[in-house]
Design brief:
Number of strands: 13
Structural class: alpha/beta
CATH architecture of the largest domain: 3-Layer(aba) Sandwich
Strand order of the largest sheet: 3-2-1-4-5-10-11
Order of helices and strands: EHEHEHHEHEHEHEHEHEHEEHEE
Helix content: 25-40%
Mean pLDDT: 94
Radius of gyration: 22 Å
Length: 412
């Protein structure tokens, strides 16, 4: 018997459910008897909150809706498995549940922290000589996973950010007096998403005036000097800033005015307020109208503007993970390897999870301009292929139709 189990973890994306579908369909096509889903990731598994996905995805309409439904169908978690030493009881419980379900392969769709889970389960499995295979399926809008060229979820988020930036620029230029708009984009330590605002510039759009990434130390005085110089041109200004930009002493800019209290299980502070702080400083110094625009969760799950490339690749990495597990692979993550830019082509390759878990991929210094306030054409050309084409939502009563997990029998 070859039963498999799949879970979703970390922040949601517009295409994470395409990866879930890729796992489900490929597993069934390869002869899996049951495909189970962990409700709320590894925490749901520990709580024995498990569903049989064969009872949820019964026809092509369900499959089409799943691809077009944002966020995590199975629910997510930010549960950090303890270090193996001294905490074997947690791992024994997990492996006992997997054994009871006769699990052949375990798939986890997520980002850096989720790959840490795969690494720890792989290591414990090796210690007890378990036959269960553990495979990571990459997902993160932050695009900060190591080894892979990019991550599913990033392309759709970048497409939304670039399109929204163009609209913000058009809005700001309508007035006969200057307005300074600060767009706050997600990105704790890596500026890939903020860099996507550069895609707004073209023959029909002036583009943003400056881009501030967390890879570069933020200098408030130089920032105000930059804004002052732009305002002297007598026009509106649009600036993109990552939520994770820091000043020289290591503090996040958002901490300069607001104390950040919430910290998740992986030690990540909740970041918000960067745009508000910068807009306030601009208004105080120059006496102009300002806008602080936080894209916040809107940029993560905008399924009405999915990138078709992103949807396809998200599905492919899910399927490739199943294929690899059924061929004997274990303790690996499926990565995307770009083999051509024109035409754009990417293939999937498995890579050892130990080279990926807990490693952040940041924007290379050579892809940031020397003054640290913009990105180079190389970075723009890197992102462009990932936002191409669209998948049309299924519209019902003027709104996109989604599929959701119905409350029903649980395997607990």
């Amino acid at each position: 018997m070859k039963n498999v189990i799949v879970g979703q973890s970390g922040g949601p994306t517009a295409v994470i459910n395409s990866s879930l579908l890729g796992v489900f369909k490929t597993a069934k096509d390869r002869g899996a008897d049951s495909v189970y889903g962990m409700v709320h990731g590894i925490k749901g598994l520990l709580d024995r909150d498990i569903v049989d996905l064969s009872q949820r995805f019964k026809n092509d309409l369900d499959n089409d809706l799943l691809k077009r439904t944002p966020s995590s169908f199975l629910g997510s978690c930010r549960y950090k498995l303890p270090d193996l030493e001294g905490n074997e009881a947690v791992y024994e419980k997990i492996f006992n549940i997997l054994t009871e379900l006769e699990i052949y392969a375990f798939f986890y769709i997520g980002g850096n922290d989720s790959m840490d889970t795969i690494k720890k389960l792989t290591d414990y499995g090796a210690k007890i000589k378990s036959p269960i295979r553990f495979m990571g399926v990459p997902k993160t809008i932050d695009n900060d996973l190591a080894v892979t060229d990019h991550t599913p979820g990033f392309g759709s988020a970048a497409k939304y950010i670039a399109a929204t930036t163009k609209e913000i620029i058009r809005d700001g230029l309508v007035y006969d007096y200057p307005v300074v708009s600060i767009i706050e984009v997600m990105g704790r330590n890596a500026g890939w998403l903020t860099a996507a605002t550069a895609l707004a510039k073209g023959e029909d759009c002036e583009g943003v005036d400056a881009i501030y990434l967390p890879e570069v130390v933020f200098e408030p005085d130089k920032f105000l000097d930059k804004v002052g110089g732009l305002l002297k041109e007598g026009r509106s200004v649009v600036i993109a800033a990552s939520e994770g930009i820091k000043v020289k002493d290591g503090r996040y800019v958002c901490e300069l005015s607001d104390h950040v209290d919430y910290v998740d299980a992986f030690g990540h502070k909740q970041l918000a307020g960067t745009a508000r702080y910068l807009a306030g400083e601009v208004a105080k110094k120059f006496g102009v109208k300002t806008r602080a625009i936080e894209l916040s969760s809107l940029q993560r799950c905008a399924s009405h503007i999915q990138s078709r490339v992103d949807v396809t690749e998200a599905y492919n990495v899910g399927g490739a993970a199943v294929k690899a597990a059924f061929e004997g692979h274990n303790g690996e993550v499926i990565t995307l390897k770009r083999i051509s830019d024109d035409p754009y082509m990417c293939i999937t390759e498995p890579a050892d999870v130990h080279f990926i878990a807990n490693v952040e991929k940041k924007v290379p210094a050579e892809w940031i301009t020397e003054d640290g306030t913009y990105v180079t054409n190389e970075l723009i050309h890197y992102i462009y292929p990932l936002i191409q084409a669209e998948i049309t939502p299924l519209w019902v009563n003027g709104l996109p139709r989604h599929i959701r997990l119905q409350v029903g029998p649980r395997h607990n």
